[in-house]
Fold each of these.
Amino acid sequence: MSLLEVRGLKKYFPIKSGVLKRTTGHVYAVDDISFSIDKGETLGLVGESGCGKSTTGRAVLRLIQATGGSVTFDGTDVMAASRGEMQRLRRDMQIIFQDPYASLNPRKRVRHIIGEPLDIHGIGTEAERKRQVFELLETVGLSAEHAERYPHEFSGGQRQRIGVARALALHPRLIICDEPVSALDVSIRAQIINLLEDLQEEMGLTYVFIAHDLSVVKHLSDRVAVMYLGKIVEISDSNLLYDRPQHPYTEALLSAVPIPDPETERSRRRIILEGDVPSPANPPKGCVFHPRCPRAQEVCTTAMPRLAVSGEAGDRHEVACFFPTRYEDGKRTVSDTPFEGASLGAADAPPIGED
Amino acid sequence: MAERLLEVTDLSTHFFTHAGVVKAVNGVSFTLDRQETLGIVGESGSGKTVAALSVMRLIPDPPGKIVEGSLMLRGRDLRALSDDEMRQVRGNDIAMIFQDPMTSLNPVFKIGDQIAEAIMLHQDKGKDEAWRLAAELLERVGIPDAKNRVKQYPFEFSGGMRQRAMIAMAISCNPDILIADEPTTALDVTIQAQIIDVMREMQTQYHSGVILITHDLGVVAEIADKVMVMYGGRTVEYGPVDEIYYNPHHPYTWGLLGSLPRLDLAEKHRLEPIKGQPPDLLLLPPGCPFVGRCAFELPPCRERWPEHEEVGPGHGVHCWIPNDQRLETRAGLPRFKEWVA
């Protein structure tokens, strides 16, 4: 059974304008996405700025209230949880933020930062809490002597370790990692990636790993969901997605990532997408990707395709495209007729604006 | 042979702060030919930006100062120029684009005003002519509907378009050298691919030399002809791009390459990070700044900076490990096993 189950999650931010602050529109940050994660698995959420990946992470933790949809954590409905239930859920679900400079209180000692979740949840006596903080520091590769210091005394990589220790304090089962290594230098980034891998193995953690860096996501994830303008356009087992991308956006995204190998770079063909990502306040009609899509046809302008298995039956690989890439006997083909699986269901219903 | 545009020899730029002297750039040498792209790679604080700003003589003084070295631009000594003469060199001969296009564009002036200003400052052109050229340049860097876009303000441009506008401004006076400081770091990958494409096109069209400063070894592999690897204000390794990636000699370069997750490898591999934290620039040892993090440290490393050692055509390294021993050590590293045949 999956540990986390997200169904039809939506988050629309109202746009207010005028003196009366009337709602004049919505930013469709996350628009009807569904996924599930098994225990011990890592799901990568990738996409460019504004695609809704961070909003998804926050809505799952109920740090922001979702507009619609359901989130179920180990059988508990997160959206409907009472205050008390929510507090218990927070022990199980933690988050690590991108910016280790902004996410640690500069006025508090590391001992307080890491110990705060223990205080709030009233875990153990003061002596026990202190011991736990020391243990946590060692778990993340720091030492007990760091406990009395302030965040500014640490480098970026060390601060991120403190952020990881804080997230681990309550022995969570799920950690949402929101761009945890994006602000770090290459050599330090590798340290944190290895640390996250080790912790997962030792503690059986489940991760949602949010990042824009596809190489990092591939490295860490078992499954990957590619997001574009608030939608998941493709979701699959990590290797399958990278070897056999089916959505034209995924293909373009993968081809745009420079590979640190000059020979490979010289022989690669790059798909360059025209234009910019449209505004999520005014998403295109039909498939959200069609204005930039090299494959778009008329049907793409009328309805948003639904996520469906288009490749071999039984593959854990779904794509939301009317003209997905197929791989037959290792050969890459794109059919001229729209893929039927993409047009079933109520996916083409217009989004509902709610205040 | 291509024309030599820039020759930097033994450049040292230090910052004299209350806490002490920061040797941001310490005895760095490199050259740039016409049509060539030099990638300067290194992590935060390695001195790559200060090296580039020194070439432009844009180091804020005080606290910064170029304390040593020569900067020769096509035979002219840049350090001997007056401030007025240097102003002519910037823009005309060397132009620079920065990481964050929003902070380098003035938000209260139209894009066209800003490009036209650069043109009028350096060329004998009237305002109308300059505006016409500005629109033409925007079109050339791939901004759709450039005639109308030129009348817009920076906030009306997306991040990618702002960077295109910066490139348009930089090439407006047809400079010999374009210095790009992390030009794509703030951009998404698909937009990064567009910008790299534009930069490449502009280079072929204008035959300029490009200095690309970045921490992204993927981008360097994509467009650089040669690479300078910096650490703690020093050049640790310098050479043709293939040499740096396939025949790296410095333990720091090994560490960088071993730290990278690879999109193109199917096998899941364990990353091999460099241990420790970046150095404190106030407390750099007299020797190699990489001591303390280097797994192969020798007795002289901390005390003396090693001489430049030529290990291949145009490929130099500064390292105390003897050459044969270095190759042997490298062959034992997991990441390099398959490369040393």
Amino acid sequence: MYSTELVVQTFISGILIGVLYALMALGITFIYSIMRMINWAMGEFYMIGSYLQYMLVAWLLGPDLWWLAILVSTAGVFVLGLFTEWSLLKPIFSKPPEIRSDYATVITLALLLMLRSLATGIAGPNQFTPGSNLPIVMVGPMPLAGARVAAFVFALVALGVFWAVLRYTWYGLALRATSQSRVGVQTAGIDVLRVDRVAFGIGVALAGLAGALLAPVFLVFPTNGLVTTVKGFEIVVIGGLGSIPGALIAGVALGLVESFGAAFVDSAYQNIYGFALVLLILVLRPNGLFGERGREA
Amino acid sequence: MTTLLSVDNVFAAYQPGVDILQGMSLTVPEGGFVLVIGPNGAGKSTLLKTVFGMLEARGGIALDGKPIANLPSHEIKRLGVSYLPQELNTFPHLTVEENLKVGGWTLRKQPALLKERIARIHEIFPVLAERRRSKAGSLSGGQGRMLSVAREMIAEPRLMLVDEPTVGLAPNLAEQVYELLQIARRAISTSILLVDQNVSDALRHAEDVVMMNLGTVKAAGPVAEFGEARVRALIQECLLG
């Protein structure tokens, strides 16, 4: 029989990783809800976040200032996102071809290949890990790796800040409005191209944050964003494309399904359980748990 | 009367080489109400989109004599031009209050003024005050149109570009929409450039009329010169070539 202790530990482990997956999914769905494009290079921004974290901790700040490294890494990926949007995507969105979202999506595929090759060329295929001197944390009777708990807390704070910005700031209002009608925000005098740029920056910064937070757990190498990106898209399908609450709830659900599957069925198939959940959701609710928010134009 | 908007020999296209506007010219006087009519495909909606900076223009567009052609929409809005597109221009998942706040985006750094403007809108349209916390998507069709117009009134534009506001509406609702535009005109002294297919009703509210065909002016003048019989004859001419 399985012990209560194991069930609780598995539950906590699932929640911890689920919230981090949710960050990635939130980035994907947030960019989609504003720009109506899929950013296939999300995993590469995750990868850049993890490399920045490694370099800052290993070479500049040291393990004690891991939290500062996370802030700097996230900010760095945000700035890179702004530059990417300005240089590669804005030229497409500022002209009116009907299929500009499709063109933009293809550009992100090219970006994926370029960034991954660049990382391999510069850093090689080696795996790195930023040192962590965070102690084991006891959650009740459960010992948990300090880096995981810190990542979870950081992710929760980031999600709280993200929600507060959307809910209480003028820019958050503009972002929420843009997700519903691009024409509507233009008629209100909002610079929709600037909103795109900020949304893209925030979206990839969420991926960069996930990369930085998970660097001590999942290591740092050129393709480390691949698995997390796949999980991000799984969550988006489960939660519903364009739904922010859907991304959060589905992220935690995926974390729990994987965690319980690995603990109670077979850990060798951990990644399969998520796909099984995706298939189940597609059969029962093809639009995902929370469907898709409407856009008028 | 002073000219507020002048469109002078403007060409515009959705696809390169296929001009929808082909040398379009018109003027809107300060405080005026100009109605643009014409058969389907004449370029009426394209005209409004071009003035509002959503399409690239070749030719002259000026507001108060200052060129505004090809400025981005948000800058044109700041200069005092509003655009009400054909579709219901609300954000269905935002509350009525939030919709009005988005309408006041250009006033976001003047919170006291914005509050005052929203309070004024609540006075003019009490139903929007009653439903301020409701999602815009839950409003009736008429209330949704009211919110669209009210949202544009917040910034107190000098010129409102209004595209087919009554399309798909029942006759009683259509009359309410014209009344909304007249309220806007009286309350904030705005000028109106209205594109409408509902010619007979729209003619009762306009002061000047421009008939468009094939992206240019077919006929123009004071509304008194556009009786129903003449309008019918002009549209027949347009359709028959």
